[in-house]
Amino acid sequence: MPMRDKRLPFPYKKNIGIITMAQPELSEDNLDIILEKMYVKKSWDFRRYRKSSLRRCIERRLASYRLHCKDYIEFLDVQPLEFNNLFNQLTIKVSEFFRDTDVFNQIEQYVIPEVIVKPKTDGNNSLRIWSIGCARGEEAYSIAILLSKIMRSSTQHALEDLKVKIFATDIDDASVDIARKGIYCEESLKNVDLFQLGQFFKPSENYYQVSPQIRNLVTFGVHDIVSNIHLSHMDIICCRNLLIYFEKDLQEKVFEKFWYSLNSGGYIILGRSEVVPSIFRDRFRDIFRKEKIYQKI
After folding, report:
1. Which residue in 202, 152, 144 sits closest to 168, CA to CA?
2. I need a surface site. Which of 161, 207, 220, 294 has the fewest CB within 10 A?
3. Is domain 101-296 given the CATH code 3.40.50.150 in the classification?
4. Is the Cβ–Cβ distance between 168 and 179 less than 8 Å?
């Protein structure tokens, strides 16, 4: 009787009847074929992401199934649900509340106070913030917590009428669903102090849930910054640790969307290993170089 590797999640029979152990060597051509299939079948466009990162993720998938790359391509054709598994492998969801605390210290002490003051002076009484690649929502809720703290402690009555809108988007609809619920394990909260934990979270036996007052500040949605039109009139954009997965030309394309999305004088916050593309450097000033916080000129 033909043997089938138990690691395969679905029945999959090769003509030879036996799936053999294989080193998952993924050629450039086969990588392109897989990415093209993802785009055609599911409209997920990873074709201009960094090939080195994608190759590592897909090769892990090949190794787990013990398939040659050509066999895996056939497997995608007969088992389309595997596209979802591969998508989950390619999308990074590692995050936590107040990740890189020094960055959030600058957001709290400088960036938010600056943008709160500006609407009062130009007659616009709204504050719009966009968290891009929000994963399961920790970053967006972290910003909402800081904003709530500042507005609570402020003696400026004008802030009571400030219309706050925090948008948080991600390509992965499953992650967005998790973010909307606002339920997190204790490990995600290691940077949350006791005051914040008591004020903005509801504890349960095995988890914490973000309070309704903070959840109501954030609107989550599925959005692909690569292929979808950008949001507009933003005062702050937070896009950390996403550009590093893009090729140079895609970084520039996406950054052009950031440029049009930001109000004049608005702020963009990038990841530790990310910088403003060279063709945009004369349009942004460094505010905090170490924390990668820039202001649109």
Report:
1. 144
2. 161
3. yes
4. yes
